[in-house]
Amino acid sequence: MNESDLRVVKTIRLIDQTLLNLLKTESFEQVTVQQICLEAEIGRSTFYHHYVDKFTLLEHLNNQYADKFQKIMVTRISTVTQSTSLVTLVSDLLPDKDALLILLNVHASSLSLDANFRKIISDSLASFLRDHLSTTLPIAYLQDLYVANAMTYITWSLAHGLNEDVAHFMNTTFINIANQITQQNSH
Predict the structure, then answer these.
(1) Fold assignment, 1-51
(2) How many Cβ atoms are within 10 Å of 109's Cβ, its own excluded?
(3) Of 35, 53, 112, 127, which is most buried, counting CB atoms within 10 Å of its CB?
């Protein structure tokens, strides 16, 4: 079957949404393919036509949202020191907030959207730090510090809504840290 076939697209969307709905009340470990099929009102053969198992379904969802996040970060990293950059980042994520809040809390095997997001932020920040800051501090330390704060901001904002004061605080904190590093190296 053609991946762009409307029936295929609808079936995949139905399976994806069914898993997300089940994850609202059950852990990923508890969810079974049989449950997904019953809730989606599809046969097991239909499920297995699209996915090998529930892990490949989770991997598909994680990759879908990680790819979106990667595209957002490519744009955001160039504006990292602007006070509106975090607001823009979260605004771009808000349409998917329900799915993201669920998937960011699923840690199954090596499949973790939270870990994917952290790696994307860390990798994006590493190039920014190398290009814009001269420091004796370990880049890995600065990455970990920023990633922890950025993920706290992202998950908090997805759960509680956009708060420009919190975004401004986060950006100001990062800019102050960057300025402190720059001043430290000029002494």
Answers:
(1) Arc Repressor Mutant, subunit A (1.10.10)
(2) 10
(3) 112
